[in-house]
Amino acid sequence: MDEYGIRELVNEVHCGRLSRRQFVRIMVGFGLTAPMAATLLGPSPARAQRRGAFTPTKRGGGGRVKLLWWQAPTGLNAHFATGTKDEDAARPAYEPLCAFDPDGVFIPILAAEVPTVQNGGLARDGKTVTWRLKKNVQWHDGTPFTADDVIFTWEFAADPATAAVTVTAYRDIDRIDRIDDHTVKVVFKEPRAFWYDAFFGVRGYILPKHILGPYKGANSRNAPPKFIGTGPYRVVDFKPGDSVRYELNPNYHIPNRPFFDVVELKGGGDAPSAARAVLQTGEYEFAWNMQVEWDVLKRLEQGGKGTLVQTPTGNIEHIQLNQSDPWTEVDGERGSVKSKHPLFQDAKVRAAFALLIDRATVGEELYGETGKVTGNFVNAPSRFQSKNTRWEFSVDKANRLLDEAGYKRGGDGVRLGKDGKRIKLVYQTSVNSLRQKNQQIVKQACAKAGIDLELKSVTASVFFSSDAANPDTYGHFYADLQMYNTTMTSPDPQFFMNQFVSTEAAQRANKWAGRNPTRFRNEEYDRLWSSSDKEFDPAKRAAMFIRMNDIVVENVVVIPEIWRNRTSAVAKGLRDVELSGWDSTLAQLAYWNREA
Amino acid sequence: MPRYVVRRLLIAVPALLGISVVLFSVLALAPGDPFSELATNANVPPEVAQHLRATLGLDDPLPVRYVRWLAAMARGDWGYSFQSRVHVDELILQRLPTSLFVIGSAYAVALAVALPVGILSALRPYSIFDQVATTLAFIGFSLPTFFTGLLLILVFSIRLDWLPFIYRADLDATGVRWVFEQARQSIMPIAVLGLFQGAVLTRFVRASVLDVVRLDYVNTARAKGLSERRVVAKHVVRNALIPVITVIALQVPTIFTGAVVTEQIFRVPGIGSLLIAAILASDTPVVLAITFVYAVLVVVFNLVADILYGWLDPRITYA
User: Using the beta-carbon criterion (under 8 Å), do B45 and A163 form an inter-chain contact?
Assistant: First the structure.
């Protein structure tokens, strides 16, 4: 049995056609252990009914719903999105072929069915995917949706001159054959285990060929502001940087949906007051991405007008240890891949740092229910989560390790380096009240172990900048430790794990745009990463990612801290708000409704 | 007079060029990146951000970029926003009505409060009315708008639940209902701005009237036996308002830049919130356009104030 067979069975279980027990029995028959088989299914029990209790008999009638994003959308073509705000604002109007549910399972949207080996959609060699598209889907202007639009979307996004942010999903497609009006065959250049990227979720929005046809490549940014999609709502008015207004699409391809007649998405302001507008005053019914300290949120929730909803993602707040020496120039370059960090080249010192991170306090005091404390870098989907890692907070053990490593304390209690000078390390992150408090907690623990940390915080727009001339970016990493949140935007770690591949090491040669700021280099890791996209046995592939996670965690290249949720504020009365951490917040907006 | 205007306009050209060089260099040297959001997303290859930088001309040397920008600006092409790809003039025009309405109304409120209060205070200096008015005016301009704004939200939106604190540019109501909704959502931002401006203007009007009321010709007018009302209206206020009008003319440009803080608190989609969002996103063309237009307006309204002054006060001539 290959990956597609297993995936098919997993889908069967999720649809309720196969029981979990039957599934595990089949897998054990193929030589898997029972717990391994169970993890393939994900954490949730079989959901017989995906769509909540509400079954409408007609479209519309729900009046107006007001949504609040504290970042304002600036564009409605998600292939140019500069953040989730744009992907979200586009989603009511534009749709992919398939969406992701909270477990990363596929939901066909514009596809008539999910391609599987059994229905002939997936080739056994992993080279082609045949999509059967829904018939009778119309664009908002009445033009029928066909295979040409799917082919156009690939041509549009794959063209390097377009500079689409979705290019990685499409550039490995060799060609797309048009079988008939509603069938296309996607041929990859090489077999791909992670094929569910193009036409999926936020990277898969299908574009109308009849509108955008002439605007491809370098000309793409001049497209007229006409937002014609297939989604449940059509754009009536878009004010960039402020708000979008949508109205119900009377020809939507799912019967009796959507429920609301008008959707208003207002952007701008700040997260705490957005939370206030939903939880305390009830001015708005939904607010996105509540990045607010937990005790503040908890207090606002007592306002009683709404509740906080936690959606697990794969995002991870973590601390990185610089593997190179940021303070000495080698060939005129600080943090050169040729150098080694004077302290962190010692495994005992790295292990001591892992013991000095008080994750429990950070989790309880700062993140509350908006995140879970974790020892893993890859936490979701559950089949990729390692069970081999441990974490603990112990200043005593850290002290013992540092003593063993030969770093004696000086007169003022601070340890001395091998050169006899006081050890002073720089720990940087972006400006963000949670992160500054987090830094303080680490600094206090380190002080007890005789290590003096200098805290540095850089404005987010500089820290996350791709500006090669600015030394304060996370890519340059001219510090000993740094902390930030890495987002995992696909329910698959293939791209996510490129952050520790040696060829991605951020350095002058790639203008510090490489994905690997720690400059960690490990042959086993590189080998695993490059072969994982060619591995079609899902169990083996999952084991490879687990091994990669264990390599970076056990070597303390990275100290994972908080596995973050996406927190939303939802007004009481709003129903069937199903949110997936792998897709846009508004992916299932067509099904949202309100209690009568 | 026309020669004076022409001369002033000619002097303005090098001044504006100088301002544009400073603005451009400061923005170009400021750290930040319009594509920082893309950087932490593992699915976006670094080539995309680099390609975008190249197509936007961000990798060219500073003088080249400046000349290119200046040439385009001279042709009336303001460039387009890095973020939304919309032309900057369109973006500004979209925001202008909201800013004009909110800030214009705030000024109307400020004047309606400041003129009578300031005049009455000055006519009866150190009376109880004056003491109270002066105290309130001091409180008014000592409290920053971000504080009074939050205070009003706390009282009227959260405790009393009377007013919304999120401003919506396109209300879906019509007719009387629209007027009502619009009034409800505008009261707080207008009050915050209006009271602050009103407090400042009150102090100014009071000082100006105090200066005039002591002059000999006012005594003469009283000695002639004119009624107090006529003395105040025709001889005191009219002359006292000359400097006040100058001050108001000099503040007109701020209508254009909007009230950054107040617009941010109440999510008013005006030019101020456009400016702050553009600064945070390193959206240089937008920041540059707004600040440069502001500079032009300041220069122009300085000239307007000078001309108005000469027209109101015949003792001043421009040779």
Answer: no
Query: What is the 8-class DSSP label of residue B232?
Result: I
Q: Give the pLDDT score at B303.
A: 87
Report B:200-229 residues touching A (Cβ under 8 A). Answer: none
Nearest CA in chain A to B30: A462
**For residues A427 and A480, is the Cβ–Cβ distance under 8 A?**
yes
Assigned domain for A295 exists: no
Hey, which residues 10-69 in chain B have their CB within 8 Å of chain A?
A: 31-53, 55
Residue numbers of chain B with a pLDDT score lower than 50: none
CB–CB of A490 and B43 under 8 A? yes
Tell which phi-psi region holds residue A416, choosing left (phi > 0), alpha (psi between -120 and 50) or beta. Answer: beta
Which stretches of A16-122 are assigned E, i.e. beta strand? Answer: 64-69, 98-100, 106-108
Residues A33 and A121 in one domain: no
Which domain range does residue A212 map to? Answer: 94-230
**Cβ separation A466–B38 shorter than 8 A:** yes
Transcribe A402-455 into DSSP letters. HHHTT--B-TTS-BB-TTSSBPEEEEEEES-HHHHHHHHHHHHHHHHTT-EEEE
**CATH number of the domain encompassing residue A128:** 3.90.76.10
> Which tens digits make up the pLDDT trace of A190-244?
988 899 999 999 999 999 999 999 998 888 878 888 899 999 999 999 998 899 9
pTM of the full structure: 0.84
Chain A environment of B36 (Cβ under 8 Å): 460-466
Place of tokens 């079988």: A179
Q: How far is CA A207 from the centre of its chain?
A: 23
Residue A220 counted as domain residue? yes
Q: Give Cα separations from A321 to A47, A358, A366, A427, A552 (angstroms).
A: 42, 16, 22, 9, 11
